[in-house]
Amino acid sequence: MTTAAPPAPGTSRGAASHITIPVGGMTCAACQSRVQRALGKVDGVQDATVNLMLNNATVLFDPTVVSPQALVDKIRDTGYEAEIPKGEKTSLEAQDENERKQDAEFRALRLRAIVAGLAGAVAMFFSMPLMMYTSHIAGAPGNDPLMLWQERAFTGWFVKYVPWTYAIPPWVLLYGGLVLTAAVMAWAGRHFYTRAWAAARHGAADMNTLIAVGTGVAFIYSVVATVAPGFFASRGVAPDVYYEAVILITAFILMGNAFEARAKRSTASALRALARLRPKTARVVRGGVETDLDIDDVLPGDDVVVRPGERIPVDGVIVSGASDVDESMLTGESMPVAKQLNDVVVGGTINGRGAFQMRATTVGADSVLARIVQLMRDAQGSRAPIQAMADRVSAVFVPTVMVLAVVTFGIWYLALTANGASASVAAVRGLVSALAVLIIACPCAMGLAVPTAVMVATGRGAEFGVLIKGGEALQRAGDITTVVLDKTGTVTEGKPGVTDVVRAGSTVSDDELLRLLGSLERSSEHPLGDAIVRHAESRNLTLSRAESFAAVPGRGATGVVEGHGMAAGNAALLADWGVDVAPLAADAERVTAEAKTPVFIAIDGELAGLVAIADPIRRTSRDAVERLKAMGLDVVMLTGDHRRTAEAIARQAGIPRVVAEVLPDGKVAEVQRLQGEGRVVAMVGDGINDAPALAQSDVGVAIGTGTDVAVEAADIALVRGDLHGLADAIALSRRTMRVMKQNLFWAFIYNVISIPVAAGALYPSFALQLSPILASAAMAFSSVSVVTNSLRLRTWRPRRAAHLREAGI
Prior knowledge:
six-stranded antiparallel beta sheet
């Protein structure tokens, strides 16, 4: 099975501890890869995952070998900002803080991009008369083809409409451009240079290095041309300056970063919407007085009043009143759910027309909403295996690009000098192409290709009641070939009812038999045990408490009730007790043929009777099974129930193959057998006895109405308890994998094509040479396009039959 979502910060998993460390200064896949490699080499670190989208590092480590502070110091040693998380925050508080940081980042980048863009427009405007001066100071045309085109296209317009620009002294234009460019670099583009320097001090290079080297070399060249134009003129080279290019490159990259930051915020829109569902206040009854309290001040056990149309503030149980509740935020199901006395309600859902009073049960970090948000944050911070390829490329990308830039310069220089050009002209032309290579290369797209898709897909799945616990589970779900379904609570409703009571000729009455059996099953978590208890209580029988209770997985339960040794379960359990069930064999055959489950009862070593329990299949099970089969999946039902009962249920649900009468270890063995045939197996269950098989399967899927043990052991949780959720998860996974592959293809092909073009591959055939300004625009577009492609997943919707959509399923 895939790795489960990590525990909350500060918890332990065996001998290991878990911590999530905020990391600042990461801008591309190379940064992410570098931090992850550094943490992975620390003694005591068992696993490290660095997320570029969330700007954090999730580390599983041995606290006896390495401390959290040592991990923070290691990140800082690699040139990035890090600090130990301050205090314990709930997932909702952490999400609020993350949103504030994202908003601040977007606003800052947008302001810098706008200012740099305006400065670039001014620099470009005054570059025309300046270009006329520099291109003719040596009696030769300019060296940049783009500038030659600008001169031919705009000289007439400038002379006609703004002739005063030609009256400005050249030195004013030159030094004005120098000051303006230096100001933009020092303010708007400052972080490019500081981060590049920090990386260089630690012997590394990243995207900031490419930008800093490219714009820095262009700026230094322009400063030399400004201060000593005669140096170039004496060698027959026009002292061209690239101030407007440096400013516009900075502006385009900042614009791309701003668009990227905005798009990254959008990828977490589902998570943001969930976090905002929590009301700010609750109307609490204390001392008989209703008081509006801050939601953080509500305590378990408080009575809370909920009025019509209000959002339910916390999780709890209804103690008076009734209503219909819209749980679509939790399950994705649009139909309101009827709630009455003793029913559970979830904080964040919306009350209908009724009013009720509830008793708070879980608040804060333990609430259902907070746990879902935490699960999604963990999932979005995880990595899909497909990301590994991008990581390997990112690790060597920046150094490779810098080498290519040097090679580009060398090829241009040698080619032009071999064709009679002066060394100075050849050097300038080679420099322009080398700068274009540095600027156009984009490792960012590779770092964003997979995480953005994971974030959007997990958020979109949650909107439809499908909680996917990580990128690995998301990717693996698309590879599933065989679906193994538990019966009770998965294919069936999980709300069985007692239909028959048969005594084995004993002197015990039906009611007394039910009373003793109900007393035993009060300690059971199995749905069949719950059905027996409910049936006994409906007959107003007084139940006692069992002693020495023991649940026997896959067989039943044993215990002592009022001094009587009792066993209740299948024939195998009673055989272990030396009890012969033959006197009731005919009755057992009859009820199993009716798709009912017989539960044999032994009291003090004697067969006392049996009860038959019917658990109807879910109304959506047959449609969901047909949908799974239409997706090319093999469907198998795996259950510990009687074969004839299981086969009857399977026929109703349209399941072609049944494996019945298996214990938990038998379920594991069947999953292993299927895996041995080369199948990718998803196991779907809801009970304690399903947990081992869930753990063995390639993808464990828990019905959300099941036990916490099953949900914890699973990779995917279906909140609404509907098998359509499994089909939705598989369909979403397949769609997401297509988007990931598209993103990675674009990220790779962009660099494979753009870098040779920037180097001048088209010049021999078409006399086209890419300007560094256009290169910066292309680089900015590359990252934005990858994030935008991932955002298409926000439009994904499950494909369900028309009658199901009309029913709100």
